[in-house]
Amino acid sequence: xxxxxxxxxxxxxxxxxxxxxxxxxxxxxxxxxxxxxxxxxxxxxxxxxxxxxxxxxxxxxxxxxxxxxxx
Length: 71
Hints:
Order of helices and strands: EHHEH
Distance between the termini: 11 Å
Number of helices: 3
Helix content: 40-55%
Largest sheet: 2 strands, parallel
Structural class: mainly alpha
Strand content: 5-15%
Mean pLDDT: 89
Oligomer: single chain
């Protein structure tokens, strides 16, 4: 079977990104916020959008699997 591309966007509120950075302890403050802006600046349309601050991991995984199966 041929491979398919599924473009997904992972979103998370800035406050939660900053909380996760502090919790991990090995991130430069503000890196997640800057990265989120930079990696979505291309204007690409996404097939799937995940909210990692609102969705449980299992729900995100199920959504990715469903999107891959639909292609």
